[in-house]
Fold each of these.
Amino acid sequence: MACPVQFLCRGLRTVGLVLLYYVFSIGITFYNKWLMKDFHYPLFMTLVHLAINFCLSALTRRAMQGWTGKPRIILSWTDYLRKVAPTALATALDIGLSNWSFLFITISLYTMTKSSAVLFILFFSLVFKLEEPNPFLILVVLLISSGLFMFTFESTQFNLEGFTMVLLASFLGGIRWTLTQVLMQKAELGLQNPIDTMYHLQPLMFLGLFPLFLYNEGLSLSTSEKLFRVTELSPLLYSVFTLSIGGSLAFGLGFSEFLLVSRTSSLTLSISGIFKEVCTLLLAAALMGDKMGMLNWLGFAICLCGISLHVGLKTYYSKNKGPSLRKLNSKSPELELPLLRKEDERDDWAAEYNDEDEELEISLH
């Protein structure tokens, strides 16, 4: 039996990982919204983020390979184009439209509308038979959809164009996370480690989003004094610097999610995501001046009830089912983080996780 000191250490570790996840997740939301006030090229910004993510994930893979001495997985062109491309395209459009919407809507409306992604994830999980049909899912759908309707009803800061973009991004997000789960659970591909998944997704995401960027922003950006027609060096360096910060935050978000799931569980990430949305709305009202009435807050509360019910149902049914191919074992070396451990901590790490027999389910957060 673990002593109180071990429980305290695990608790502090979990709190620290959750706070790290909050910093990157909430930080990139507010940062992108702030950046869009002066830099009106969200698709180009997304392309820069993808390029930075690819470089950082490549460096991380190289460091992990040097630490473990084992070569990282590299997919064949056939598997890469046939099995990774659909996930990459859905992910690119999801992120691109989400960033694009910041030109039109508030952070609170964005946060609330993106919560509807749970509905689309449920739908596509049923289509791909990743979820089993359950009557309680109807209640989850009703709670989330009615909460979203109440939140947007008579909203003084409602923008139809931005709302449509986020709703479409949520729809694509349902496809994205469902395909990502399928992709990471195919053992023959060897993409169980999210860093490897990020590395393989970024190039195709870049290529998938680039035509939309050329059509919508290419001509405007080429004649803009923000980048290509600068008369002084300082504005160019400022633009590059601000875009690089956003790319680093995007990579930090993906890595912090991986860190939180691998060191705790996907349930912790899901519950943390619920409270993160509450924090985001409170900060949006306090810092950005987002206006929300009583009906809007009530709709938000109802939506959170639906998301909480969904998390609870997944937890209940996963505990009553045996191990399946849809789960990753938390003892897998692919989920260990050697870069974050000192040499003398390896034995403590192994002893701690030998006592744990919980299966780690891939999060559809």
Amino acid sequence: MEKIYAFIFVINCFLNIYPGARAIGINYGLNGDDLPSPSDAISLLKSRNISKVRLFEPNTAVLTALKDSGIDVILDTENQNLQSFASDPSAATSWVNTNVIPYASSLNFEYIAVGNEVIPGDLAQYVPSAMQNIDAALFAAGFAIPVSHAVSMSVMGPSFPPSNGVFSTEATPIMTEILKFLSSKNSSLLVNAYTWFPRQSDPNNVQLEYALIDDAAKPVIDNSLTYQNLFDAMVDTVYAGIEKVGVSNVDIVVAETGWPTAGSTDATIENAQKFNNNLIKLLASGKGTPRKPGKVVEAYIFALFNENLKPEGVEQNWGLFYPNMTEVYHVDF
């Protein structure tokens, strides 16, 4: 099995050298009562050449529809299971037996995300052990599927400019433990990085163009590095934090990013379309970030559909498609 992990590492290195080998993905949420059937949704993904998808929870119908689709999957565990996974290895084994083994022969799980955005917080303490037990269950079942955890930017302390990136005092112990585990497994850290939120919280200092990855933005200078957009700056802020806890070989996968189309200032179809198309263009260039030139960033756009069971306002308006599968706006995948 160690040889399989080494093989995965070699493949990841190959993908970093050849940008075309990686693709942008999309988050497929289910928090709506008017969404299309999973089979129709997966057909939509295939028709748009979207080859990667993230699922926030196991769903039998969706996983069945994904079988033999050629679409890679990040599959999340639910946060409420973290404590049981951490304390009871048999709970982790049961989850793997139910949600991975029946599908693994006919679809590719790119990562298992053990929890989402619980650091800092009461559930954070369970994440490292939960990750280790899910990883052990996968190993015992004969699968070398990388395990990770998805963090928000709230794990960071004051971090401007990006080279000053550092984890918060509260998050540092848990993040250090997680990163050392990821390093030992040649896995990546999943990061939810929305340029929308810094723009909304500090519009006087965060240019709209900078947040939208627009070439017209005034650049930000960080010592010898020049940042043309906030997306690169956020990714490199986390890389700086990773390095400061003594880890150097863990890559970042942006598990969520995007822009809403309604519900608040700057939340317009025009801005959302501009952000996502600029993002795809940036990642397709293969140039990496200023801190990590040439290292391709893999990213997942949030989200596939507008979801009407979320809180009213911005939360219902992140989708690229309406539930009837017509475009909210066009994105050039």
Amino acid sequence: MSGLPQPPAFPGTPGRCRVHDVMDLPLLVLLLPLCCVSGLPFYNGFYYSNSPNGWNAGKGHGEGIFNGVKLVVETPEEILFSYRGANVTLPCRYHYEPALVSPRPVRIKWWKLSENGAPEQDVLVAIGLRHRAFGDYRGRVHLWQEREREVSLEIRDLRLEDYGRYRCEVIDGLEDESGLVELELRGVVFPYQHPQGRYQFNFHEAQWACEEQDAVVASFEQLFRAWEEGLDWCNAGWLQDASVQYPITQARHPCGGLGLAPGVRSYGPRHRRLHRYDVFCFAAALRGEVYYLEHPEKLTLAEAKEACQEDDAQIAKVGQLFAAWKFHGLDRCDAGWLADGSARYPVAHARHNCGSLEPGVRSFGFPDPHSRKYGVYCYRPR
């Protein structure tokens, strides 16, 4: 089902609202809330994919006119995908219509837009040959100017928290125009529960739990993409915006009943401290290697950690195991300890005598740490 149509942006002010100077006050009061409606399509507690002809605010290019000359900023409309640890270039170019004979001094600013309550982050500003980077981007970003009027941003050694929307702004005197670039990391979404069982995390504890597994709390867009790829999970979990949702591909009685269509079902926003649920984590593709350690005996949890250290590695985390399964095809029928005290095993090629007939990461929960029933999965960084 397609989403509700979005209002068009006004030229030169992508994604903003503007109200005519002359308007009846009652009509103005009614229209002001409507002109700023945005967000993903929503219907009856479900989210559905955007219409292919839907409005896409702030992408493509911006343009403004001054003294008969139009300043145009061009950025790609498609989402850019990359990997953690990789280098990526966010394209941005500008030009004038009609073309100018002599160059004009401009100021360039890149910043990362606010997401889910997080503040905007300045990334880089440049005037001529002078550049300045900010915060965690220092030493990792520079302006890529291979061609005339190219002001692309290169980010090196991508981190989990680097994904999101970036704005490229070109300032010419009193005029400024901008374009939007969206960066997404290749990764995998996985549900995560507390060792004591279902629905134990408040939002802040959920954030910490994902970080401990070399992951971050998933965004709605990441969960939605995982649902499109087949993720089906009946327990509700926190997302990055502090909403609580769960993905269903096969409608059934224990998961909302048979009368509701498949989709990402939502409980809406919840109190960050008082309410408790599971969490959906997002782990990016790895630069290192996850492997099952060949050992003559089964191990306790403490022995498993020590065995990985003796092999010049460390015991793997849940996010690392999921990433190795998703992107490196890790396939092993042997259950092994992980850093959080759980025992799991990854199956890339489903087969008999190896769990269910669907690929995935199987879990034995959180066994007694002193039991000697399991091997261990280790992680060696590259």
Amino acid sequence: MGDSSTNSNRVKLPDGRFLAYRESGVPKEEAKYKIILVHGFGSSKDMNFSASKELIEELGVYFLFYDRSGYGESDSNTKRSLASEVDDIAELADQLEIGPKFYLIGISMGSYPTWGCLKHIPHRLSGVAFVAPVVNYQWPSLPKKLIKKDYRRDILKWCLRISKFAPGLLHWWVIQKVFPSTSSVFESNPVYFNSQDMEVLKRITGFPMLTKDKLQEREVFDTLRDDFVACFGQWDFEPADLNITQESSVHIWHGKEDKVVPFQLQRTILQNQPLINYHEIPQGGHLIVHYDGICDSILRALLLGEEQTLYKPILQLNI
């Protein structure tokens, strides 16, 4: 876990924790657009967002990647919550002086801090893109007939209960039953990934934090557990409650073959928030952020408002 002795660039938060970060793209002082990227479960600031160098320079984009608390080289936060994740983002933006407003891109489980920012600091956001965002099954607006028989909901409910009342038992169960070998249970597993995702996993690092060896470290396990609970536990709002307008420039990118988060759940969000721009990838799985051309499409839609010809938003929201 992170500490103050790391050699990475870092900022010190008001509570004494350190957040590690890295910068990419054009120099901050020359940038027209400034984007903070929020990584997902088991990832880090070293995640790859493969937008083309030509487009980044053409648009003048500055990227700020950071290790969320407990990940990579950032200090753990034993009081992690949705609100604390929002505070970390706002404090990081202030200390690095990226300006009063910025863009956010939330990837997979990095979506819950991103929704939190839309709720608590909407005035700081120029626009937001969610990429394969997770869904909290406790959101009241989700149709019960849609989620009633979803096995993912039952698994999440069980894990939340054990996380709260018997975290030691959960740690044992994950090590002994979920991770029978030293490799990551998520890598090359058709339960979670479609054929395009499997091809992606052949050329990227995958999920090095989600291996049996890493999870045997209790501090690593506790970070993942606390992140999981903050994401899938009780919120004080849901996306349906937010005041999202056309000017909010909110986008959701999701694969129709995503096996981690069913596309039908994303479509229900749009029934309550019709001004969200929804981009559905017909053969896309959960790892669409790594597909060729997707990152360029995300930037063009988010920053320029361009309608994509390769990945058009779905207009018929038949669930």
